[in-house]
Every structure is written in structure tokens, then in C-alpha cells.
Amino acid sequence: MKQLYLMRSFNSDVKRLLGFWALNSFAYFGIASVLMNLYILRLGLGIEFIGFFNATGQMIYAITSIPAGAVAQRIGLRTSLLFGCVLAAGSMSLLLLVEWLPQTIWQPWLVVCWSLGWIGGAFATVVGTPYMMLATRTAEERGQAFATQAAVVALMGFVGGAVAGVVPGLIVSLLGGSLEDATPYRLALWLNPLTYLLAFFVFAPASPLRLEEQQTDASTQRPPLRLFTFLGGIVLITGIGSGAARGFFNLFLDTELGVHPGQIGFVIGLGQLLPVLMVTVTPLLLARLGSAGTLAAVGVVVAAGLGLMGLSTHWLLAAVGFALVFSAMAANGPAVGIFSQELVSSRWRTLSSAVINVGIAVGWAASSALGGALISAVGFRTFYFVSAAISFAATPILLAYRRGRRARVPATATN
Fold this sequence. Notes:
The chain is mainly alpha-helical. The chain has helices at 2-6, 12-42, 47-75, 77-95, 106-135, 139-175, 183-189, 191-203, 218-221, 225-247, 249-256, 261-273, 275-311, 315-342, 349-378, 380-392, 394-414.
């Protein structure tokens, strides 16, 4: 595809950042997304705890995103990214030691370790966008770099998901036991911290880029709070949609549709691979619809995908719905990332990135908490239908914003 071919023209810092995201995506979107919930379920902890477990980590991510941006301003972007990698690897390693501890402290241990990992994720995601903005040279290259990053994330999510689906079965065939035990999932999950450490070494030689400390007048020293509130609210709604699709999908396949664990990894991986194709048309969507129009279309497609998941009685239809959600989110990422960065000066770029991450994280946390309660009470299907309705709510808001912005432009031009 075009974006992957153009990687050869990127400078070494962009390539290292893409490698960093490739490995992080393999570890989180692949290995952890497929295996973590299944591991906890086989420890004997129920879906309601899993919802609380995921929601807590995501809320910690939201709370620490803005402080992470402030710290990055002081210690530098590269150092912040590397710190996030080390923290993610260390917290996951500690989490996987849970079975060595008394069973009475399993739940708090899992929650604390998972939350520490999300703090590492806050540093990585908040800092990654402004680093890419500084590492790229032109607006055209920037658009291609962000689109390529989305493609790399999707591709490596597929590879990680496929690997995660196969490894527990291989462990059982080599060591014995059963896929109904926790052991094969625990051993397979060790791929996660090892991959984070590899990402550390891939990115370590990158340039220590820093955001400029600009001297500005009093009017530009105030952050654009109205813009941040609007962006945060929109990504919160879309975060609920993507969180609903990802957060419980492996459990839906496992407990509701009776899909084999090996096939779960393939289904989730394939659902994350198909969005690679969407990345190739994202620049066209942005040129034709604009950022607000693209985000409005994302809300429609996410709602449609969640609706299909709610209607599913076969894994194939569920997989189509899952792929629709993540195809839409592949367009959402570059649109939100570039839009939020270009609207502010260099001074506010880490804060803008942090606000976006806060909105997404709160959406994910709300989805996890909602899912834990709704699924336990009324089942997966109602949860997906409710999430679809919430996701669609972003569309009229964005269309109204788009119309308002178009109306203001001619008025401004004539003054």
C-alpha cells in the first residue's frame, strides 16, 4: 500500500517512532487485547470484575494524561516515550506474578498493576503525536506519516492478535493442561512486556526533540478551553463506541458464540487488519468532507458496526461489525490527531494531545463500567445496542458544528 511504500522516504526519527508504535500495537492491541480478559476469566474472576478492572485502568489513563503532557514539556518527548515503555513493561510483568500471591489480594494486585501500565500508556500516547509533528518536515509528509502510523497500528494489531490466538494452544500441546486453565494464557501474555522492552531499544536512538518555549502575549498564553472542551466531548463519545467494540469482544466470542480461543485471536486480528485499507482513503475523506464531516461519518459507521455486533448469532457477522468499528476508527485517529495539533500553537500541543487522550480514556472507562453492569444484567446484545446509540450521538453535533463553521467563514471574509 502507498503509505507503507512511502515509509522509505521518512527520516530516521519518523521511522523509529513508527517502529515504536508497531511494537506497542503488537503488545497491546494484539497480545493483551486478545488474552487479558480470557486470562482473568480463567482465574475465576467474573465479567463484572473485568469491567471494573478495565474501567479503572482507563480512568487512571485519563487522570494522568494532562500531567504526563506537563512532565513531557520538562523532560523531553523522547525521554517521556521511553519512560512510558519501561513502566508498561514493568507493570505487566508484576501483574503476571499474581498467581504467586494469596488469592485474597488478587483483585487489588491486578487493578494496581494494570493501572500503572495505563500511566505508561498515557506518556506514550500523549507525547507520540507532538513528536510526530516535530519529526515531520512538511504538511504533506505529516499527513502521510499519521496515515502510515494508523496502518502500522492496524497491521501489527492483526499480527499480535493472530499470534495471541495460536500461542496458548501451542503451550498446551507442549506442556499439557487445558485451554480452560489460566496457565497457557499467563505464559503467552509474557510476550507483552518483552515486546514493550524491544520497543524501548528501537526508539532509544531517536533524536531528543523538544517543543519550543514560545514568548507570547497575554491573549495567547491562555489555553483555548472551549476548543478543548468540544474536542474532548467528541472523542469521549467515539471512545465509548471503540471501547464497547474492543473491551468485551473476546468474551462475547468466548462465552456467547462459543468460539475457540485460537479462532478468537484470528477474528480480532482480522478485524484490526481490515482498517489498513481505510487508511489509504482517509486523506481523500479529509479533503472532501473536512475533519468535522469525517468525524461525523465515523460516528455513523461505528454505530452501524456495533448494531451488527448486537444482532450477531454467528462469529462472522460479529467480526464484520467489529471490523466496521475499527475501520471507522482508523479514519478517526488521523483526523482528530492532525486537527487538534494544527489548531493550536506549539505551546499547547502536548495539552491538546492530552485533552484528546482524556476524552478517549473517559469514553473507554465509561464503556467498561457500562459493559460490566449491562452485560451481567441483560447480556451482550443490549450493551452493543446502547453503545451504538451513544456513538451515533456524535454525528448531529459534528454536523451542526460544520454548518456553523461554514456560516462563519463567509461572514468573516466580507468583514
